[in-house]
Amino acid sequence: MKKLNEILGNVEVLKVSGDLNREVSELTFDSRNIVQDCVFFAIDGVLVDGHKYIEGAVKAGAGVIVYDNKQTPVDVFGNATAICVADSKKELGVIASSFYNNPSSKLKLVGVTGTNGKTTVATQLYSLFELLGKKSGLFSTIKIMSSGEEVNSTHTTPDPITLNSFLSKMVNDGVEYCFMEVSSHGIDQQRISGLEFAGGVFTNITHDHLDYHKTFKEYIRVKKVFFDGLSSSAFALTNVDDRNGNIMLQNTKARKLSYSLKSVSDYSIKIVESHFDGMQLLINKNEIWTHLIGKFNAYNLLAIYGVAIELGMQELDVMLAISKLTNVSGRFDYFISKSGIITVVDYAHTPDALQNVLSTIAEIRNGNEKLITVVGCGGDRDKDKRPKMARISCELSDKVIITSDNPRTEKPEEIIKDMEAGVTAEYYNKTVSIIDREQGIKAACQNANAGDIILIAGKGHETYQEIMGVRYNFDDSVKAKEILNLLNK
């Protein structure tokens, strides 16, 4: 239990009615989770306006209501203390941080944002610091980790209550460093409000999430908000090979740092050799071998190296630990069948990510083998990228199978039709559309021979396929292995 007036210190309160000295038990923004004497945050969300549920929350036992400065009838508050603020989404983060004793200030929290690479950079940072003997935490698309304990994620960037609850647990467990994926949705919806970051990383920004942000300019602006909010004691590390990399640093108070493969920067890297089993790299002129492959992973490793150095780790220790890192689940995961067919499973679900993976394969392959790409696009998401994904696949593959990804509430046929618009006449003969994803993977396996390469793109680590609100068990890697075994390949 906490006294209400103890957790309002940093809140911009516009109006109060009721007792500020009362005790509060929990925080919630979901009217279905009301407990006696909790604080209910009425938030005007993407789908639902929480102000409609104030009266019900009070009747269910909520002792405090935090609401936006909008017309709200006074009689709905009953005996609850009502606190009017300018933005309840923002103040949810501020109050959650205070309620859990400002845990982000008691460890080194680093946020990683960008279109591609967030999961790899954040997850590999967690693994690196664990290898260095540092108790660490992780918030990623795949999972939440706290010094070895794992919880499945529901969002790339969780809500402020979940974030602060886990951060508090991490502090109690002695965690020193925490690495977090910071999504554009999370920034825009104020999920990181109230957190203190020791540093931020920008990986890149490409075409994605325009179903939500509407324009690319707005997408960039939202990403930049994260860096604008960093303090002067933090660092901001940006990929200056991305044409929008320097934009992220324009108004930040943080110490400005850069990394690059092509430009003059604080941290630089060169790919000496690249094979399916790894790369030889020069990081700031130090030679290292890594099990990871591809130019995109070279960027990711350089960002990881830069963060570790900025957090005070010793260079030689960092280099040794980097050499031990392995692929993040669903990120260029590959296996070789008994007949020698190479299958790559990757989460690439944006045009840029797909091009990166296909370009990496092109750099490694000898040219005599076929490259068969199985690709789809998710439903209820940015439609503009669909023809681009198909076109890139056709340009960089010998054969393309367009199939379903997670159609969600859309008809798979319509999604595939959108993708087919990107297939020009010169590629008709190498492209086929198969609605059922399992059958699409099977067709790729049937057409592959020893030495050929199959890329299954779009779902990566996901172990389900979402169709009309139902999640069915489906793992690309498992399916491909089963089919290749049945085909005796």
Summed up, the helix count is 14
Number of domains: 3
- Going by CATH, the homologous superfamily of the largest domain would be Mur-like, catalytic domain
**Structural class given helices, strands, pairing?**
alpha/beta
Give the averaged pLDDT, no decimals: 94
Please provide a written account of the structure.
This protein has 14 helices and 26 strands. Helix content is 30%, strand content 24%. The strands form 5 sheets. Strands 11-10-9-12-8-13-14-15-16-17-18 form an 11-stranded mixed beta sheet, with helices on both faces. Strands 19-20-24-21-22-23 form a 6-stranded mixed beta sheet, with helices on both faces. The chain is α/β, with parallel strands linked by helices and 489 residues long. The mean pLDDT is 94.
Q: In a nutshell, what does this entry contain?
A:
This protein has helices spanning 54-59, 88-99, 118-131, 160-172, 184-188, 210-213, 216-228, 295-310, 315-322, 351-364, 385-396, 412-420, 437-447, 476-486, and strands spanning 2-3, 13-17, 23-24, 27-28, 39-41, 64-68, 81-85, 108-113, 136-139, 143-146, 149-152, 177-181, 199-202, 235-239, 255-260, 267-275, 278-283, 286-290, 333-336, 342-346, 371-375, 399-402, 431-433, 453-457, 464-467, 470-473. It has 489 residues and is of the alpha/beta class.
